[in-house]
Recover the amino acids of this structure.
């Protein structure tokens, strides 16, 4: 490990801690929330500022230790914020379909009528 | 001719930037190589014939990004608080049906990303016929506030950018 | 014309002629007979020519190099005894050929007959002329095989098939025993050379392995000579055409057994074991055969049992171990051959002329065929031991030998009585043969009117009967010198005096002869009534059907037991097989390690709680996946992903970035892959088993758990032990030190993959390509389970929903579902391409490389398939995965071959730093081209595998509709993209 | 660290072996995957564990003791690829068997 | 000094991320529905990615960056496939 | 290295790879082109292998011609070694290859896509496994061979093949894991992957690590023994081989020999007399396992209801005999075993080809498609009707003769080479120091000799049963639809056994020198480790 100035170390450590903590809280939410639609919000902590802080820590560390700007971490931020929504959207819509199909009353009905009842894919 | 070589100039530029970031270098060689790769990547995308987004005001994008960044940061803190409150908290989560004027698929995609990437709100289902979207909100105290935020802060900007 | 050349010629001639005979046309009866007859006569001539060389104990020997390293050279060796056999084989052979010319019907395929016959003759000659005991076994088995073919000649009769098989089984088994016996003798003596063996009698008899060797040799001899209790195959061999019987069961095949006994008499006889086994087997056979012969209703059956009995006589004589008994045995071998051959031929003529061999149907034939009858009567008399015929002489010698006083009182009494009794029986069956067939009233119900056969067909019998007479009357002039030569070669120069004269004065032997003759006549008279009733088979031992017992035993052992053993010690189920594999995989290493593992020092240096926590997660995921895999496939798959990520982090933790990247990418592709497959796995069926079965299943599960636990403990111990031991000074330093200098890259792992050990990589990509092709082939005619043919439930419901709603059309749901995500997924396509190029180009110096890039690229394609569906993508992109595979392999290969072209070994790489304007120093390594090949192959193979699976969804409705396999053409017309 | 990894390898092996002995083809394929993780980690561990010593050298002469052993890594890479190929193959054979036999039992028929 | 700061903060951070993974795993196992498990896997991926980034800082090298990047760019593919399987019963139509 | 001869060692791997890859560039509908390429490549391959054997037999040369792939020094790079044994195995593979290929052209090559490519890759895998001198590279080539064999075993599909294929794949995947574990463990203890280097290190390994090294060898051994079909690891074999299409099964005849080869190679090289405390490792396992395999194989031969399965069990008998013989650890026995190996492989291969024709006789007149339909359930076989070659007259006689020869060879009856092989082994068992030296016959030798005789007898009984019911009990008037290109390969294989019978002397000498070299490997180890490189590494 290359020696870096203390200010930088503090900054890196702090950012890393905040980022990890946010991610941790997000995952806590994932574990603690009662319904799927609530849980779906939890991981976004990690994918948004959880990731941003950790990656910022990385940028600072490598920029300071390598004496040149290391910003490729930005890519991760960009792509994570671009791709995570895709997963969540697809997943949420699938959950919606399944809940409707099974007649779980807690979800708004589809625009037109109700889907027929089907067995869940959990049984696969 | 130009369209054939460079079907998506903005995208290709983005790919060049991506390349340079990946190489962590601004050397001329890398720029040349990156341009070749970016051109190729653009052609590859062109083969898939996606809908062409028409971006009228690209610089508004930066505005939008700043807006989103701030919102996301606050949302992070809000959701973190909710998580930490645990079960003592009153259940406030709920669904929200949102009518949209936006029709451009790319614009809708960006809006979906913004809403979903923001902790506390999630894009669930888009009804293309009616132009409505179902959103789930973790802390749904006031429906209208959410509708306003989304419509005024994001949709308006996106409409400006794309249409 | 040296004797050794003639010997070789005599042996090769029949085999060569057999080949020629096989190639002659179907109806060439005369040509075949001429050929075979000429061969036999030539052989006979050679034998006669050679007599002076063997007359006074001389031996002619010719050695041909074959396998000197094994002590197995071809040695042709003839002495007086084998000369005698040579004469019998060729002489009787000639007569049988002559006979067969008339016997065989024009409808019979004669080429096969004469080819087998000649081959048999050659084998028999080879047997008696063998000067190497292994060679002897070779010809021994050849006689079994060729006789099998001869006995089964009329294979459309079930009897012929069964008889042939039984003969082969019994004699073949004996032959295998003989082989081991000979090997033991060879081991004792230190050579397989017969002359060496014959000179080592004392060594052999004194050796601890004498008894096993003896037993095995006797097994061979007794089975071949149809001695009790192996006698049963012989009567059933009578299903053969009569010439075959006449040849095999008089002069040759069955005589091979006694030939062997005589051949090894000098080295193995004389011990108690020999005496008891051989004599008792012989005596039992003698009496039993004679007794059984009386009650046969089939002429050939009678002769067969008579043959068994006479062989028993010879065996008994040999068992007695005295030189004089051996003389008698040799003499009887020759005598029996003459009269028995003639009798078989006579029986054949009777069969030929009347259409039956059944004594009960035959009678009074004398008036139709007086010549033949007379000949048969003389031969029968010889068989019965009537004076002035050759049979009498050797039988007298036999009686004289058994009458010798022995120390053992039982032997003293049993031998003479047994011999006389058997002789009496012989008189009875001979009488029955003569009286029953030739005398009495005219036969009734015959299919044709009997008459004398063609003169030439009778000629062989005439010659043989003449021999019986002249030998019987003037033995001293006719047989004596030849017998003497034979005897000397067996019993040695010190053979005691023996007399061949007809009259030896009044002695015990003569008395026994007298008793036998008179008693025989009386007994026949007494039995006449019973015999007239025509009951087939001997009374008292009627139930003892050797054949049936044999078939039964064979069925039980070779079929019932075999199947039971196969089921007991084998399995066709997968689980036990894997269980055994893992048992051994745990047990064998454990047996080597348990006591010798050495110290295990527990160390907690560098312990990291985060890492431990990480592995807690990994372990929980793995266990949960294992637990869920049965009923919750999707859950298991998700949990598997968790374990995969932990593995990936572990790689990073311990300095393996390349592994982490590859693991991660493969993980993604595998998930998609299994999901693609999951669509074709219908829901699990309910468990229909009852309590007991469930309990059994549970016990099996516990058993498997224990084994799995042990396997885990074993792996833990071994891995831990190695990880905490000193690093051996191995090859790794070289790679680290030279990767840059010699391989032109700083990423040592990548340099290893594309350079130091590129050969492994070449094989590895070949595997991937092969598997892709296999998957494609297997899926081209894929037949989904019935329940999965229809679209998945979700799609049906969603389509139904779309159909019901007035303003929607089918597919709207999925389109809406993917509307937004597919935009982003499509836009990721160029990003992924850039990432792939990035990983590819940096591979040599930094983590990445062709493989990782290839997988990234294929994930890019798959993502598009997921976003837009098969048709959407294939309307836009033209992917030819098989070509990608082919070009990848060819590219990788070309890099290797290029080195060869410039004189270096395959896969020698070259690299150079090139100064490119504006860009700088760039390393150009041929290994990069190799890596490009890897990239191309990986893209092709991965895409082919995944797309071939994905295509099943497009195909299946059609498959369900037509229920025909999808042919190539359909696949390509189906899909604009050509998946090959 | 070694102990943690060794136990991890052991547990993965146990799960893999247990699943491979199960009657359902899907269990077997998950077992194959778990076992393949275990084996890959095992091969990897044969080079001993070093943190922060990736075998990516500088371009000059180097001290080999500062880098972890690259050989097992090369072997694992090959093993991963082959493992992936074999998973794909087994999957397809499993599907084909499911199709023609009508059951997902490894023996092609339900055991009684 | 800075080394100590970094050592402890990174260590704690990694510990937190491992804790995140545990939380995600618990959801993966508890479910109750397939969508919950897939969601948890997605969160698991993100925590793993951040873990790799922190590891890069910890050992002071960016050779592990690409591994994190691969998760960032491609990690969503397997969860997308899972989600689509849930919705449509097959991954590629 | 400027002539083709210098690269002879690597050509048996390159040629099939090149041919296989080249064929991928053609459409699957261009089957004739592919067949042409395949035949040409396989024939060329045969020539190369003959040259390799000649080169290896040349006593003035080094014992082993080693070839440093990539011009990297041994033991760091991968080295190929062509000594007498590997050259012989490669030749054997190519003989089997050409005959199976010609046979397949009559109909089987059209039963599914990519037959020709997979066929070449199988050859590549086999040759690589025989030629490589590196443990991990051996694994890779095992996998190449197996991957191709999976594809070929499934070739033609149908219920029986798919069911058997599932087991075959699953069991062999298990074995592959063991192979990896073993190879890795050996590397972890010795730090090398090169077999010769390993052999030179075994004796000096620290005592503390010896258990681990031997455990590694045990893992490897299990993987090999499973391929060889040793009881109780070989239950998959008869089923798989019986289900496979005839030409495929005919080539598979040598796959078990790869396992035997690997066992022989590693046990003599690394655990021979020079292995110090580890000398003779695993011999007891080989002896007991081999004998159990013979016994089980013989029982299976008797119990088999179909001829194809019977043939599969013959493979087990052959494997068991070889393993037990190798387990004796005696050069004389090994020499005999090597002769037996060649003969039994040729015979079994020919037999697999005959089996299908026998089936055709049984239901002569009925179309072969109907047969396969019946045997493999409701599956349609899309074998196209483009049969090549002429149906021959007298086919039944020809088949009968071929079958009889096979019976002799498989039962080990005189006068053919099957007998000589067994005789050579048993004679060596009885006379471990040579025929003229007195010795005590060990119980193991007794057992093995008896089992060999017993198995021969079992084969005789079972095969006569089959032969009689096929050729004698069924009388069909319609001539069997057998083609020249189906009979010719059988005649080639059997003809070779006849040649080996007649020339048994020199052939046996070749084997004994081979066995001698195997059992005293010091020179060969030295030669491999001193493999010369070409100049300096390319600039
Ligand atoms: Na959100
Ligand atoms: Na509608």
């Amino acid at each position: 490990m290359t020696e870096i100035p203390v200010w930088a170390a503090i900054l890196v450590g702090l950012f890393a801690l905040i980022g990890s903590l946010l991610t941790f809280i997000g995952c806590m939410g994932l574990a603690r929330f009662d319904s799927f639609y609530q849980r779906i919000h939890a991981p976004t902590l990690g994918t948004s500022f959880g990731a941003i802080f950790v990656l910022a820590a990385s940028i600072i560390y490598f920029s300071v230790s390598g004496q040149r700007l290391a910003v490729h971490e930005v890519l991760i931020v960009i792509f994570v914020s671009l791709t995570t929504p895709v997963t969540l959207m697809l997943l949420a819509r699938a959950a919606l379909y399944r809940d409707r199909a099974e007649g779980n009353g807690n979800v708004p009905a589809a625009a037109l009528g109700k889907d027929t009842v089907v067995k869940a894919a959990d049984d696969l | 001719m130009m369209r054939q070589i460079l079907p998506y100039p903005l995208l290709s530029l983005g790919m060049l930037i991506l390349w340079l970031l990946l190489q962590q270098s601004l050397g001329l060689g890398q720029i040349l190589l990156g341009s070749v790769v970016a051109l190729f990547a653009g052609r590859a995308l062109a083969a898939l014939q996606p809908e062409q987004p028409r971006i009228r005001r690209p610089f508004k994008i930066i505005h939008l990004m700043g807006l989103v960044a701030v919102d996301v940061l606050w949302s992070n803190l809000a959701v973190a608080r909710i998580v930490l409150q645990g079960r003592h908290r009153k259940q406030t989560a709920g669904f929200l049906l949102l009518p949209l004027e936006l029709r451009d698929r790319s614009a809708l995609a960006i809006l979906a990303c913004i809403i979903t990437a923001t902790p506390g709100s999630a894009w669930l289902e888009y009804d293309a016929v009616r132009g409505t979207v179902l959103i789930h909100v973790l802390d749904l105290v006031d429906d209208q506030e959410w509708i306003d935020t989304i419509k005024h802060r994001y949709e308006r900007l996106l409409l400006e950018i794309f249409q | 014309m040296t004797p050794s050349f003639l010997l070789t010629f005599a042996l090769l001639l029949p085999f060569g002629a057999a080949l020629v005979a096989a190639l002659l046309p179907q109806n060439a009866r005369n040509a075949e007979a001429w050929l075979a007859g000429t061969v036999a006569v030539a052989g006979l001539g050679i034998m006669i020519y050679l007599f002076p060389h063997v007359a006074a104990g001389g031996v002619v020997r010719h050695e041909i190099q074959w396998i000197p390293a094994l002590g197995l050279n071809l040695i042709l060796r003839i002495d007086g005894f084998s000369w005698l056999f040579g004469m019998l084989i060729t002489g009787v052979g000639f007569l049988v050929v002559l006979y067969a010319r008339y016997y065989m019907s024009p409808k019979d395929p004669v080429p096969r007959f004469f080819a087998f016959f000649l081959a048999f003759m050659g084998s028999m000659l080879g047997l008696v002329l063998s000067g190497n005991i292994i060679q002897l076994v070779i010809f021994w088995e050849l006689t079994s095989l060729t006789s099998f073919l001869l006995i089964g000649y009329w294979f459309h009769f079930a009897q012929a098939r069964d008889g042939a098989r039984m003969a082969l089984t019994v004699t073949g088994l004996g032959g295998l025993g003989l082989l081991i016996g000979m090997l033991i003798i060879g081991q004792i003596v230190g050579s397989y050379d017969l002359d060496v063996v014959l000179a080592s009698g004392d060594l052999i008899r004194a050796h601890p392995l004498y008894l096993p060797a003896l037993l095995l040799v006797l097994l061979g001899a007794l089975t071949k000579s149809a001695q009790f209790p192996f006698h049963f195959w012989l009567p059933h061999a009578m299903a053969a055409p009569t010439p075959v019987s006449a040849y095999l069961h008089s002069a040759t095949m069955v005589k091979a057994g006694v030939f062997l006994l005589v051949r090894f008499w000098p080295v193995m006889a004389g011990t108690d074991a020999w005496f008891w086994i051989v004599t008792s087997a012989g005596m039992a056979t003698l009496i039993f055969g004679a007794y059984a012969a009386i009650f046969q209703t089939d002429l050939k059956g009678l002769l067969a049992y008579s043959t068994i009995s006479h062989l028993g006589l010879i065996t008994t004589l040999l068992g007695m171990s005295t030189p004089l008994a051996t003389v008698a045995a040799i003499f009887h071998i020759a005598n029996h051959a003459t009269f028995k051959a003639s009798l078989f031929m006579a029986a054949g003529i009777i069969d030929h002329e009347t259409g039956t061999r059944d004594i009960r149907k035959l009678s009074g034939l004398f008036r139709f065929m007086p010549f033949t009858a007379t000949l048969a009567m003389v031969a029968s008399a010889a068989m019965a031991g009537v004076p002035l015929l050759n049979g009498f002489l050797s039988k007298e010698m036999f009686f004289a030998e058994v009458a010798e006083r022995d120390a053992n009182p039982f032997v003293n009494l049993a031998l003479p009585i047994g011999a006389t009794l058997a002789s009496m029986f012989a008189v009875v069956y001979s009488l029955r043969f003569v009286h029953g067939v030739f005398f009495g009233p005219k036969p009734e119900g015959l299919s044709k009117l009997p008459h004398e056969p063609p003169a030439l067909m009778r000629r062989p019998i005439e010659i043989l009967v003449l021999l019986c007479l002249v030998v019987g009357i003037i033995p001293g002039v006719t047989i004596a010198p030849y017998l003497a030569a034979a005897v000397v070669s067996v019993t040695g120069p010190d053979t005691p005096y023996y007399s061949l004269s007809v009259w030896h004065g009044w002695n015990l032997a003569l008395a026994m002869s007298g008793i036998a003759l008179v008693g025989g006549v009386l007994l026949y008279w007494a039995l006449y009534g019973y015999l007239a009733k025509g009951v087939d088979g001997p009374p008292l031992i009627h139930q003892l059907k050797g054949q049936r017992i044999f078939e039964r035993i064979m069925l039980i052992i070779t079929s019932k037991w075999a199947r039971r053993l196969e089921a007991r010690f084998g399995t066709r189920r997968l689980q036990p097989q894997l269980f055994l594999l893992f048992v051994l995989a745990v047990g064998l290493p454990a047996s080597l390690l348990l006591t010798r593992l050495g110290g295990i020092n527990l160390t907690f240096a560098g312990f990291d709680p985060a890492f431990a926590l990480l592995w807690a997660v990994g372990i929980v995921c793995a266990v949960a996946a294992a637990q869920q895999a049965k009923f919750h496939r999707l859950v298991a798959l998700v949990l598997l992903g968790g374990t995969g990520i932990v593995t990936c982090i572990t790689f990073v933790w311990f300095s393996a970035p390349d592994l982490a990247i590859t693991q991660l990418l493969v993980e993604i592709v595998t998930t998609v892959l299994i999901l693609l497959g999951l669509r074709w796995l219908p829901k699990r069926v309910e468990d229909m088993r009852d309590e007991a079965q469930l309990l059994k299943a549970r016990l099996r599960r516990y058993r498997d758990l224990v084994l799995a636990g042990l396997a885990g403990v074993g792996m833990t111990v071994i891995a831990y032990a190695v990880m905490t031991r000193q690093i051996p000074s191995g090859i790794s330093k070289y790679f680290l030190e030279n990767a840059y200098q010699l391989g032109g890259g700083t990423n040592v792992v990548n340099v290893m993959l594309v350079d130091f050990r590129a050969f492994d990589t070449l094989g590895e990509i070949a595997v991937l390509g092969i598997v892709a092709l296999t998957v494609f082939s297997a899926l081209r005619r894929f037949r989904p389970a019935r329940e999965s043919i229809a679209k998945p439930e979700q799609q049906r419901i969603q389509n139904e929903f779309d159909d019901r709603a007035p303003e929607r059309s089918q597919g709207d749901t999925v389109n809406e579902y993917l509307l937004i995500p597919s935009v982003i997924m499509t836009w990721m396509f160029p990003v992924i391409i850039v990432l792939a190029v990035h990983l590819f180009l940096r591979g040599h110096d930094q983590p990445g490389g062709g493989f990782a890039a290839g997988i990234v690229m294929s994930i890019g394609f798959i993502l598009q398939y997921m976003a837009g569906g098969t048709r959407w993508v294939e309307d836009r992109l033209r992917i030819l995965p098989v070509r990608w595979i082919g070009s990848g392999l060819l590219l990788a290969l070309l890099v290797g071959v290029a080195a060869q072209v410039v004189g270096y070994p395959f896969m020698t790489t070259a690299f150079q730093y090139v100064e490119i304007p504006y860009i700088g120093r760039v390393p150009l390594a041929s290994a990069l081209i190799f890596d490009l090949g890897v990239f191309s192959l990986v893209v092709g193979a991965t895409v082919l595998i995944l797309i071939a699976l994905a295509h099943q969804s497009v195909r299946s409705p059609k498959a369900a509709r037509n229920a025909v396999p999808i042919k190539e053409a359909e696949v390509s017309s189906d899909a604009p993209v050509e998946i090959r | 660290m070694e102990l943690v990894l060794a136990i991890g390898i052991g547990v993965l092996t146990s799960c893999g072996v247990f699943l491979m002995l199960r009657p359902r083809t899907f269990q077997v394929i998950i077992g194959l995957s778990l076992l393949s993780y275990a084996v890959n980690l095992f091969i990897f561990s044969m080079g001993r564990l070093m943190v922060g010593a990736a075998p990516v050298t500088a371009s000059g002469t180097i001290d080999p003791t500062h880098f972890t052993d690259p050989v097992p890594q090369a072997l694992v890479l090959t093993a991963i690829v082959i493992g992936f190929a074999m998973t794909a193959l087994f999957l397809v054979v499993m599907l084909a068997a499911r199709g023609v036999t009508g059951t997902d039992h490894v023996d092609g028929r339900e055991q009684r | 000094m800075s080394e100590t700061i970094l050592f402890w903060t990174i260590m704690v951070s990694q510990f937190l991320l491992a804790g995140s993974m545990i939380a995600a795993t618990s959801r993966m196992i508890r479910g109750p529905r397939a969508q919950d498990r897939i969601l948890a896997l997605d969160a698991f991926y993100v925590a793993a990615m951040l873990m790799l980034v922190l590891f890069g800082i910890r050992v002071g090298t960016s050779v592990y960056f690409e591994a994190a990047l691969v998760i960032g760019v491609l990690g969503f593919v397997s969860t997308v496939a899972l989600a689509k399987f849930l919705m449509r019963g097959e991954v590629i139509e | 290295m400027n002539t083709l001869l210098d690269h002879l060692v690597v050509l048996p791997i390159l040629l099939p790879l090149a041919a296989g890859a080249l064929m991928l560039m053609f459409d699957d509908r261009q089957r004739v082109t592919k067949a042409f390429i395949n035949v040409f490549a396989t024939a060329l391959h045969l020539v190369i292998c003959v040259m390799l054997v000649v080169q290896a037999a040349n006593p003035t040369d080094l014992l082993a011609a080693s070839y440093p792939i990539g011009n990297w020094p041994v033991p760091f790079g991968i080295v190929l070694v062509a000594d007498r044994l590997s050259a012989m195995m490669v030749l054997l593979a190519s003989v089997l290859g050409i005959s199976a290929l010609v046979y397949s052209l009559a109909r089987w090559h059209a039963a599914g896509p990519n037959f020709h490519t997979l066929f070449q890759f199988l050859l590549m895998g086999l040759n690589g496994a025989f030629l490589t001198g590196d443990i991990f590279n051996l694994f890779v080539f095992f996998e190449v061979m197996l991957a191709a064999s999976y594809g070929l075993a499934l070739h033609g599909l149908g219920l029986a093949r798919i069911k058997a294929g599932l087991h075959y794949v699953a069991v062999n995947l298990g074995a592959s894991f063991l192979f990896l574990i073993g190879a890795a463990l050996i590397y972890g203890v010795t730090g090398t992957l090169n077999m010769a280097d390993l052999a030179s290190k075994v004796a000096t390994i620290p005592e503390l690590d010896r258990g681990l090294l031997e455990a590694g060898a045990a893992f490897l051994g299990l993987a090999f023994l499973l391929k060889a079909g040793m009881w109780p690891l070989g239950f998959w074999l008869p089923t798989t081989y019986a289900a496979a299409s005839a030409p495929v099964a005919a080539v598979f005849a040598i796959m078990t020999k790869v396992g035997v080869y690997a066992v022989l190679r590693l046990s003599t090289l690394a655990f021979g007399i020079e292995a110090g405390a580890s000398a003779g490792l695993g011999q007891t396992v080989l002896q007991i396992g081999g004998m159990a395999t013979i016994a089980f194989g013989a029982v299976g031969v008797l119990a088999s209801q179909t001829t194809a399965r019977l043939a599969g069990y013959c493979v087990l008998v052959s494997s068991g005999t070889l393993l037990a013989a190798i387990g004796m650890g005696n050069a004389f026995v090994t020499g005999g075993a090597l002769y037996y190996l060649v003969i039994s492989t040729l015979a079994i291969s020919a037999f697999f080809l005959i089996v299908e024709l026998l089936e055709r006789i049984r239901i002569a007149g009925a179309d072969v498609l109907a047969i396969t339909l019946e045997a493999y359930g409701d599956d349609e076989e899309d074998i196209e009707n483009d049969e090549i070659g002429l149906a021959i007259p007298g086919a039944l006689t020809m088949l009968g003769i071929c079958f009889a020869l096979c019976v002799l060879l498989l039962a080990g009856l005189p006068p053919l080479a099957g007998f000589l092989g067994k005789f050579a082994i048993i004679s060596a068992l009885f006379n471990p120091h040579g025929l003229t030296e007195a010795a005590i016959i060990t119980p193991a030798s007794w057992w093995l000799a008896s089992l060999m005789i017993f198995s021969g007898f079992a084969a005789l009984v079972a095969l006569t049963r089959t032969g009689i019911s096929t050729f004698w009990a069924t009388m069909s008037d319609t001539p069997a639809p057998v083609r020249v290109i189906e009979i010719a390969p059988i005649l080639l294989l059997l003809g070779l056994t006849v040649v080996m019978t007649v020339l048994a002397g020199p052939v046996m000498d070749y084997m004994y020198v081979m066995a001698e070299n195997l059992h005293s490997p010091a020179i060969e180890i030295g030669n491999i480790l001193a493999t010369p490189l070409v100049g300096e590494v390319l600039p």
